[in-house]
Design goal:
By secondary structure, the chain is mainly alpha-helical. Helix content is 81%, strand content 0%. It contains 15 helices and no strands. The protein is globular, with a radius of gyration of 21 Å.
């Protein structure tokens, strides 16, 4: 069985797809809650509930989209066509979701639900085929890890652009008001996302054929995922890790604005975190070759626990130490994330041996459902924590409110990473075992 190598050009092209995805994803993660509470004008509790309801509802579409993508056959391939078809709707809806209409408060909440739901549905329609594409570009487990390393380095590059550029663009459009500033800023960034998706389409190629039995159905394919015990383990870990991201990212601007006490540091703080993420993703390419995926994954989780615990106890006056610790937390997190996605691709081979079905897009759709579930729980927890601890926008916070911010930003994330480490001890798809599985399949 020959192992398929990928060129740097193709890896970079594939990575641009997640640059595009992450331009919007990081805005949702880092700025959606503070946009809703401090600009759009709805309460923290309402915003938290909105994030939970919409993301859970949107999760219903994930397995449906996975089944549709696995069954798509065009001259452009199985998964690539969706990069072409959905890129412009994705960009348009990103702008619409960050538009503040001049309507009554109740109608405004409805508008937020509808536009956010449409954006997340479009995200599903382009991101599931994009994720599955990485699994059919090569059959080599090490090349898959390398591809995902490039992917997340490029994804975090998109994150760097967003967390630095969005506040700058909002300020640049300040003459039009903060509401219009967000809308115009999103128009600029969404255009960039569309361009990245189109380049990704042009530079990538599908090499592995996806076969779906005519007797199979989307429901049966989705059900077969749960017979894959290694996939289930990775899904549980994903929920823990993405709950952390949804929670910490949503509260990070509040942490800088109210705990550190200097809102002007927000852009630099988040940009530093994204730079750390880029470096972590790049390091994964080399470190996974040397140490193997599982040991490196566990190392990242341990350091993540320690760094978040440190963030919880560091006083606000220690700004430099806070920045350094946040850098470390993001660096190791972005070692974990690419490995997580490459392991999902590996579970497809294991699942094919166990069930006789190779359902790449369905596997990633189930994984995206876990991502959205974790992200939904984390985002909702952020809003609810602020509400429970009596957060009031745009004024100095009480000690009680600051406690809620610190729980969401540091303490709960440390616990979630510890839980992920415990589950990871049960995962057993080493590189050697995967090569043996592929030999049996071929």
């Amino acid at each position: 069985m020959s192992q398929q190598r990928l060129s740097i050009k193709e890896k970079l092209g594939y990575g641009l797809g997640d640059t595009a995805s992450n331009i919007v994803f990081q805005i949702l993660a880092n700025f959606m809650l503070i946009f809703y509470t401090d600009v759009f004008g709805i309460s923290a509790a309402a915003a938290g509930t909105l994030m939970l309801v919409v993301r859970l509802f949107d999760g219903i579409t994930d397995p449906v989209m996975g089944g549709i993508a696995d069954r798509t056959r065009t001259r452009f391939g199985t998964y690539r066509p969706y990069l072409l078809l959905m890129s412009i709707p994705y960009g348009v809806l990103a702008v619409v979701a960050f538009t503040t209409p001049d309507i009554a408060q109740d109608s405004k909440l409805i508008y937020a639900y509808v536009t956010y739901a449409l954006l997340m549905t479009c995200y599903t329609a382009i991101n599931i085929p994009y994720s599955a594409l990485g699994g059919v570009m090569t059959n080599d487990p090490k090349e898959r890890a390398s591809l995902q390393s490039f992917r997340f380095a490029m994804a975090m590059s998109g994150g760097v652009i967003v967390v630095w550029a969005l506040p700058q663009l909002v300020d640049a459009f300040a003459d039009y008001g903060k509401q219009a500033g967000y809308q115009y800023a999103m128009a600029v960034l969404a255009t960039l996302a569309v361009i990245c998706f189109l380049i990704c389409f042009l530079l990538t190629k599908e090499r592995e054929e996806v076969k779906v039995s005519e007797k199979s159905s989307i429901v049966k394919d989705f059900g077969s995922l749960f017979k894959n015990d290694q996939w289930v383990l990775m899904v549980v870990i994903t929920v823990f890790v993405l709950t952390l991201i949804g929670l910490r990212s949503a509260i990070a601007p509040h942490y800088v604005k109210y705990y550190v006490g200097d809102e002007s540091l927000t852009s630099n703080f988040l940009t530093l975190g994204m730079i750390a993420s880029v470096l972590g993703a790049l390091a994964t390419h080399f470190l996974s070759q040397k140490f193997g995926k599982k040991p490196l994954f566990q190392f990242g989780l341990i350091v993540g626990v320690i760094s978040h615990a440190a963030l919880f106890i560091l006083p606000a006056s220690q700004v430099a130490l806070i920045f350094v610790t946040f850098f470390i937390a993001n660096f190791v997190h972005m070692i974990v994330t690419p490995l997580m996605f490459s392991m999902i691709a590996d579970t497809v081979d294991y699942g094919e041996l166990k069930t006789g079905k190779k359902i790449m897009a369905m596997t990633f759709s189930g994984h995206l459902l876990a991502i959205k579930l974790g992200f939904a729980i984390g985002g909702a927890m952020a809003g609810w924590l602020l509400s429970i601890y009596n957060y009031v926008p745009n004024q100095a916070q009480t000690a009680e409110a600051l406690s809620g911010i610190m729980l969401g930003f540091a303490a709960i994330p440390a616990v979630l990473l510890a839980a992920a480490y415990i589950v990871m001890t049960k995962y057993n798809l080493t590189e050697g075992k995967l090569y043996n599985i592929q030999k049996q399949l071929h």
